[in-house]
Amino acid sequence: MKPLVSQLWPQFMADPDFAACFGQVIVEHAHMLRQERQVIFTLRSGAPLDKNLCARLLASLQPDYEGFELKIKNLFGYAMLDETALRDLLAQAQDEGLTELVVQFSSTDSSAADIERLIREVESSAGGADWLVRFYPDRDSVGLVEILLVH
After folding, report:
1. Helix H or strand E encompassing 13
2. What is the pLDDT of residue 49?
3. Is the link from the previous residue into 137 a cis peptide, with omega within 30 of 0?
4. Would you state the pLDDT for residue 124?
5. Would you say 133 and 116 are in contact if contact means Cβ atoms under 8 Å apart?
């Protein structure tokens, strides 16, 4: 059984904000990349974790990993993929060096043009060039969006 953040680092549960954010978060694994001097904590949650609280967690853990850069990889399912969630998902894919991302929509209030506009904004800010965006079954009935992140 995989531990919860609250089981590995119970000292942080005294903070109500931290407890609310991380109380039911599972620690999938910690991956130490010695040559890159990084430690990546993979956490699974029901929703995106608060970035400021993640930064606080990493800052608190830093003394235990002196000389290493600490990162959190947050795994979660999107119950609803709004603009902010799609933006975060695209930025994370870009940061991780992914070359392809497929997003499935069960329903969306956004048109293909709105989704593509958002993708192009993230592409531009991330320094991408000419990402290929395909809509399935077609632009009029968005069910699946394939994004090829060309570097």
Report:
1. none
2. 86
3. yes
4. 81
5. yes
In the predicted structure, residue 55 carries a pLDDT above the cut 80: yes
Q: Is residue 145 within 8 Å of residue 122, measured between CB atoms? A: no
Are the C-beta atoms of residues 141 and 110 closer than 8 Å to each other?
no
Residue 18's CB is within 10 A of a number of other CB atoms, namely: 20
- 16 pLDDT exceeds 80? yes
Q: Check residues 42 and 97 and name the one with the higher pLDDT.
A: 42
Task: Give pLDDT, residue 134.
Answer: 84
Using an 8 Å Cβ cutoff, are 63 and 71 in contact? Answer: no
Alpha helix stretches (DSSP H) within 24-135: 51-61, 83-95, 112-125
Instruction: Tell me if residue 15 falls in helix, strand or coil.
Output: coil
| Tokens encoding 78 | 């999107």
Q: How far apart are CA 62 and CA 56, in angstroms?
A: 10
Average pLDDT on 143-147 reads: 77
